[in-house]
Amino acid sequence: MDIVGFLKSQFICHLLICYIFIVSGLIINFIQLFTLILWPINKQLFRRINCRLAYCISSQMVMLLEWWSGTDCTLYTDPESYHKYGKENAIVILNHNFEIDFLCGWNFCEIPGVLGSSKVLAKKELSYMPIIGWMWYFLEIVFCKRKWEEDRKTVVQKLLNLRDYPENFWFLIHCEGTRFTEQKHQISMKVAEAKGLPKLKYHLLPRTKGFAVTVQCLRNVVSAVYDSTLNFRNNENPTLLGVLNGKKYHADLYVRQVIHILIPFKQERIPLEDVPEDEQECSTWLHKLYQEKDAFQEEYYRTGTYPAVPTVPPRRPWTLLNWLFWALLLLYPLFQLLINMINSGSSLTLASFAFVIIIASVGVRWMIAVTEINKGSTYGNNDNKQKQK
What we know:
Keywords: Acyltransferase, Endoplasmic reticulum, Lipid biosynthesis, Lipid metabolism, Membrane, Phospholipid biosynthesis, Phospholipid metabolism, Transferase, Transmembrane, Transmembrane helix
EC number: 2.3.1.51
GO molecular function, one term: 1-acylglycerol-3-phosphate O-acyltransferase activity
CATH class: Alpha Beta
Distance between the termini: 48 Å
GO biological process, one term: phospholipid biosynthetic process
Helix content: 40-55%
Strand content: 5-15%
Main location: endoplasmic reticulum
């Protein structure tokens, strides 16, 4: 292992990275709190400012993937569509198989410069999570309790509020509702059998109601649907801990507009007006899309590639520059404090510092555990509660 790789694997480096992320994130959350005074005066200015503040947080995560771990993300897409990225609002359908698929989704948003304004449909519990959850609150993220009878009115209102959003945005949605596991897949396929739906090999059944409402509320605001499929080469099993350790992964992201099974892998753009507005028809459309998506996934496993010309988009420097800014701002006072504590020679002071380090390490491990599949949501594991949304 070279010296750079050795340093990346050291826990002290991980602590410093997490210190920068946590402290800068809390500072930004605090600034966001003060932007609330702008909402009744100039709502659009409030939104533009919070897009930039949110970028300061989320781009640090993307920096870890791009610059720290050096992960290569190869993009496969139609060149005509590629030139439209970032110039139109879009709904982005993502598969949900990996611990860092959210991070690769953010990386995809960074390519055309819509990371700061990107939206998601997220579970309500995340809104209470410091830094990212609080950041999402100011970005007007759509939170749901995963109980559709309670969620519908709130989700509709939140989506309608985005109709006059001043920045181009991508709305990222995992239609499966939860990460793929074998247990969840078996339960999901029992539901498919009960409902008379074709079984899927590599995906869970999509929850269609949230997608249908999203299409209804954002029609005439969102221009297109991007269906994205993420895979990693050589059966890599990427984790956030691996990224933090500087491990390099090789991601393949295919952004397709539609794939016809009868005309294999033909690409066409999906304008939003081509997606049915009626809830039942939209549900049928989405199920068909996932059947096509499943056939496409099988083709990837068979060939190890996508049927398109690969492109490795150049890394934008802003994620790295943003992180360097916060590192320079926050590391100097930390080292100054550490030097003063050592010079003081006080046993109580040093013990207090050691205690803080232990608490910080526990906090870092907790944040990483949030992304781990085996410690993730149990949503979809209960056969009796497996109701398709």
